[in-house]
Each structure stands twice: as C-alpha cells, then as structure tokens.
Amino acid sequence: MTRRIIQTDQAPAAIGPYSQAVQVGDLAFISGQIPLDPASMALVEGDISVQTRQVFDNLRHVCVATGGDLASICKLTIFLTDLGHFATVNDIMAETFAEPYPARAAVGVRELPKGAMVEVEAILSLAEDA
Predict the structure, then answer these.
(1) What value does the mean pLDDT of the chain take?
(2) What phi and psi values does residue 85 have, to the nearest 5 degrees?
(3) 91 neighbors 1 (Cβ within 8 angstroms)
(4) Residue 118 burial by CB count (10 A; 0-12/13-18/19+): exposed, middle or buried?
(5) What is the Cα–Cα distance from 32 to 92, expressed in whole angstroms?
(6) What are the Cα distances from residue 76, in Å, to 1, 40, 46, 53, 64?
(7) pLDDT, tens only, 54-103
(8) Strand, helix or coil at 87?
(9) A Pfam family for this UniProt protein (predicted)?
(10) DSSP structure string for 28-70
C-alpha cells in the first residue's frame, strides 16, 4: 500500500525525524501532539486546561489536513505527566468530541518533550462508511 505523508502549517512542525501524520489506505496515524503554538513553536503558557485545549486544536488541524476531522478519530492515546490531571483532560475531551467517542487510553509518563504536561496521538479512519 502507498503511504501518504501529511503535513500542515496549521499544526506544529515535527521537532524530530517523524511526520505529522502518515496515511495508509483508509487509516491515518497522527504523531503525538504537544501544546506547541504552531506559529512560534513555543510551548503555550498555562495550566493543564490551556495545554490540553492547544493539543486538541493541533490534533484537529492535522485531522483536517488528512481530509478528516475529530469525528474521524477511532483511537486516542493520551500521555500525562501527572495522572491527577486526568479528570480535567477528560472534561475537555467531553467538550471537544461528540458521541460516539473514540476508543482511548491514558498513560502516566515521567516527562514529555519541551516540558509539556500532555501529549495526544491518534488513529483516524478516512473510510467513507466509517
């Protein structure tokens, strides 16, 4: 199968040797998004709410670049440096996504790139009947 590399300037550029997203067939695999401002490439200032909203905004822009949207997401993996923030992230996810919600995992990690508190990666389906 052919791989299509997805790139948009509406989301932060890759900060390493990876692509923002890769589409294979009807699936797109979106690399982990951290709360970087796409224009400045700086970590947004603020608490977990501010960072989470920026992450979901970055994720939305990459979804759109694939030809999908947040509703196209089948699976999310959320990485948190403090699982005490889980309830806040959960509330923001409920504001951001509509039912039926994607499958999800939340993982506690020691640290994330650039000192971020949250990172989210996604798999989305671009199948017309999904």
Answers:
(1) 96
(2) -90, 0
(3) no
(4) buried
(5) 18
(6) 24, 26, 23, 15, 16
(7) 999 999 999 999 999 999 999 999 999 999 999 999 999 999 999 999 99
(8) helix
(9) Ribonuc_L-PSP
(10) EEEEEE-SB-TTT-PBPPS-HHHHHHHHHHHHHHHHHHHT--G
